[in-house]
Amino acid sequence: MFTVAISLIIPLAIFVGVITGAASQVRNTSCAGRYISPAGECVRYRTCSSEGQYIREAGNETQDNKCFCDGSNRFAPQEPKKCFEENNPNSCLCLQCPPETLLNITENGVFVEKFDLKEHCVTLKEERILPSDDCAGWKIAFGVVLVLAVITIGILSNFLRKCRQEKGINQTKEMPLQESTQTDEESEKVGSPTSEELLKEDKYIDMKAHKADSNTEKQTFQEHHDAEIQDLKQHHDAEIQDLKRHKLAVPVSCDGSDEENAPS
């Protein structure tokens, strides 16, 4: 009895296996170009052919194609985070930023929840010139003005220093000329000395040169001077006496004339 049951079960199992394999082979052949959903259905791969889309990751037997938007051409999904993580068709519909703008759909390295054209499409001018800090522009302007002010002050100080140096040189050149003109004017006012004044000055200089420095020489000079004066007085007195004697020796006539001079 047991042997009969085994002989019946083995052929039945073989028959079931053959039928199941054939069915799976038929099913795999019919799902070519598709993937098998969790429900066991064959589903076509998404083509990711909408405007701006591309296949980020190709599908396999159990997984659909993963789509995303071409950021190099300024395309971004409506819901970037959901599109990347869940591959939801509606979330992966692409929107494009206008020309001359840059696309930015990440914050701290993570995709944003929802894409906004005004917020996440940044113009090139703002990206290149305007920094993230609102006050940075004023800081840059203030720095530029400060640098220009320092340069201007340096140029002015250098110019003033050169002017002062040139002015000092001109003053030193003009001073001797002014002094010479002053001396010429003074000499013209005083006038040139006469020959008599020069002679008197020479005599005075000679007398001062011969004047003795010591008391003894002064006394000798005074004695010599007094002796000369005394000799002059004596000579003068002698001449007077001679004249007096001569007048007394000559007889005088009644008419007052000398007899020597009277006619014979």
Task: Describe the protein.
The chain is mainly alpha-helical and 264 residues long. Among the domains are: 44-128, no CATH class; 147-176. The chain is 57% helix and 12% strand. The chain contains seven helices and ten strands. The protein has a two-stranded antiparallel ribbon with strand order 1-2. The chain has a two-stranded antiparallel ribbon with strand order 3-4. A two-stranded antiparallel ribbon has the order 5-6. It is rod-shaped, with a radius of gyration of 71 Å. The N and C termini lie far apart (242 Å). The relative contact order is 0.04.
Counting H and I runs of at least 4 residues, what is the number of helices?
Answer: 7
Number of strands: 10
If strands are numbered along the chain, what order do they take across the biggest sheet?
A: 1-2
- Unreliable stretches (pLDDT < 50, length at least 5) are 22-29, 126-131, 260-264
Strand content: 5-15%
Average pLDDT level: 76
For the biggest sheet, the summary is: 2 strands, antiparallel
Distance between the termini: 242 Å
Amount of helix: 55-70%
| Outline | rod-shaped
Question: What's the multimeric state?
Answer: single chain
**Integer-rounded radius of gyration:** 71 Å
User: H/E element string?
Assistant: HEEEEEHEEEEHEHHHH
Keywords: Membrane, Signal, Transmembrane, Transmembrane helix
Biased composition (Polar residues): 171-181
Signal peptide: 1-24
Region (Disordered): 171-202
Brief summary of the model shown:
The chain crosses the membrane at residues 140-160. The protein has seven helices and ten strands.
Secondary-structure blueprint of this entry?
Layout: H1 2-30, E1 34-36, E2 42-44, E3 53-57, E4 66-69, E5 75-77, H2 80-86, E6 94-96, E7 101-103, E8 106-107, E9 110-111, H3 117-120, E10 121-123, H4 124-128, H5 136-190, H6 195-210, H7 215-249
Antiparallel strand pairs: 1-2, 3-4, 5-6, 7-10, 8-9
